[in-house]
Specification:
single chain, alpha/beta, D-Maltodextrin-Binding Protein, domain 2, Helix Hairpins, 3 domains, 5-stranded mixed beta sheet, 14 helices, 51% helix, binds glutamic acid
Length: 362
């Protein structure tokens, strides 16, 4: 009898153990959390971490009585590797919930709605184009300077011929038979003819033949230069026109390494530059190394409204919706508790407070 009771008690104890994972294991202990600096989700300030995701996780951890130890990773791939390899238990930053990641990991309920968006250089639609700076830019463009150089060289040849043939002509176009200043008259005439604007023509017969030939050269030169300017302008106008993801084909675009944005950009056949820190993508945009930055909208919107104000702006809406989640290795019982706490935080307004602190209007 005693033995039977003993067995029953043992079986019951086992059943209880299996059905409810011991809360003592998940609550009131230390937890290693992989994260990554990505304002405004994760910000490093005076050696401490803050930001939306950090504040949210700290609130969850406080309710679950977990002591948090953060380990920052350089990019999202490295962050996931921390969790995969068990160096940290979970990951919290701006981690998009995707079908590919869901195969290997488990995610919490979404902690923030996000999605991919495009940011380009400039002060916004209105401040973008200024005709005066457009003209100056065109005049001093590399193409124009090359053409000017070629023209200068070309001018020297007829200038010398005309000077030589015309220098002894009375009332000709070269009033001095000395090389200086005679050659300057020759050069002035040569330049004016090239621009099809010459006032006088030479008298000497061979000089007239040369002049005729040079006038034709001038017509061809002006026609080619005009065509070149028109082509440059057209390219500039086409390049200015990033309005949506379809305009990114073949364009240089920066984003972060291993991100969902990098994968989406490769699908769109853009030329992708992948950097670890999102700040390096912003810098590449300002340095004109890329035409756009494509990344998570909460991150870009925060930048465009703060540090990047007047220098970068968003075009189009989110073109791919993604949600952020907290990432776990499969089978971690903590996930259920985190989800329950997340719902509590939404219900009692704590989530909204944290949200407003980072994304609310000023
Ligand atoms: N939401 C992006 C992703 O999960 C963030 C990438 C990053 O942290 O740079 O792919």
């Amino acid at each position: 009898m005693l033995i039977a009771i003993g067995r029953l008690a043992a079986t019951l104890w086992l059943a209880v153990m299996i059905v409810s994972p011991a809360p003592a294991e998940t609550v009131g202990r230390d937890i290693m959390v992989a994260t990554r600096i990505l304002p405004p989700l994760v910000i490093e300030k005076d050696g401490a971490l803050t930001g939306f995701s950090i504040e949210l996780w700290n609130a969850i951890a406080a309710r679950l009585k977990l002591k948090v130890d953060y380990r920052p990773a350089p990019n999202v791939g490295a962050l996931l590797e921390e969790v995969r390899s068990n160096r940290t238990e979970i990951g919290v930053a701006a981690i998009s919930i995707t079908s590919v990641r869901e195969v290997e990991f488990e995610f919490s309920q979404p902690i923030l709605n996000a999605g991919l968006q495009i940011m380009i250089r400039g002060g916004g639609r209105d401040g973008d184009s200024n005709p005066l700076s457009d003209i100056l830019g065109l005049l001093f463009s590399k193409t124009s300077l090359v053409w000017l150089g070629v023209a200068l060289l070309l001018i020297l040849i007829p200038a010398h011929i005309i000077w030589f043939l015309e220098r002894r002509q009375d009332s000709g176009i070269i009033p001095s038979d000395k090389y200086i200043p005679g050659i300057f008259y020759g050069m002035y005439w040569s330049a004016a003819t090239l621009a099809t604007q010459a006032e006088n023509q030479p008298r000497q017969w061979l000089a007239r033949v040369v002049a005729l030939f040079w006038m034709f050269t001038g017509i061809v030169f002006v026609a080619l230069y005009t065509a070149q300017l028109a082509a440059t302008l057209t390219v500039q106008q086409i390049q200015g026109g990033i309005n949506g993801p379809d305009d990114l084909v073949g364009r240089k675009v920066a984003t972060t390494k291993g991100s969902t944005a990098a994968a989406a950009l490769r699908e769109l056949r853009a030329q992708v530059t992948e950097v670890s820190r999102i700040e390096d993508a912003y810098q590449a945009l300002h340095d004109r190394e890329v035409d756009a930055v494509v990344f998570d909208s909460p991150v870009l919107l925060y930048y465009a409204a703060n540090e990047g104000k007047g220098r970068a702006y968003m075009v189009g809406g989110q073109f791919r919706k993604e949600d952020y989640g907290i990432v776990f290795r499969p089978g971690n019982p903590l996930r259920r508790q985190v989800n329950a706490t997340l719902l509590q935080l939404r219900e009692d307004g704590t989530y909204q407070q944290i949200y407003d602190r980072w994304f609310g209007g000023k």
